[in-house]
Specification:
Blueprint (H helix, E strand, L loop, with lengths): L1 H20 L20 E4 L3 E5 L5 H8 L8 E10 L11 E5 L5 E5 L1 H11 L7 H12 L15 E9 L13 E5 L5 E4 L2
Antiparallel strand pairs: 1-2, 2-3, 3-6, 4-5, 4-7, 5-6, 7-8
Amino acid sequence: MLRRRIPLVLLLTASLLSGSCATSLFKVKPVAELPPLPSNSRSADAGGVTVRVAPLLSDEQTQELFEANLPLAGVLPVRVALNFQSGVPLELKKAKFVVRDSQNREWKLLTTKKAVSRIMKANGVSFYNPHSKKQFESDFGAYGLDLKTPLDSSQPERHGFLFFQTPDKSAVDNNQKLTLVIERLPQPVTIPLN
């Protein structure tokens, strides 16, 4: 009787594990549920393009959106909106986005894959289903600001998150003065984040 139950238990366990591993590593909230930029967003004009930056998210807000504490992982999400006003189409892939802190250290812009790797490492995720990681990258990447497509009058508005890594990969300290610097636009832009 016991011999018959062992294969059945193994089969049930394997099916449960394979089913649970087919989902994302972290449950990312759908982008459609993201509210519009708040009215207290800061903005600057960059010569034909208006840049708006939302206030920094709290640890709880990042947890709610991404089911992961990004600041604890050393990842700073910065929500940005770009509005094309006029002029020549803007190649965003040539623009340089940097965050500087009060010590004038430069925070590196992360790709989606690097941000996901940083989050996984900070959360101690080392064993995972590759499909689950791809799903998390896809869900997380949906929040990213598209920097590959030129900004022009056919698509005058663009918004999303840019993800920056702290200089020493430590947790984000919101007590520091942080500034977003954007270069290689028609005019350079500097916007305080906090």
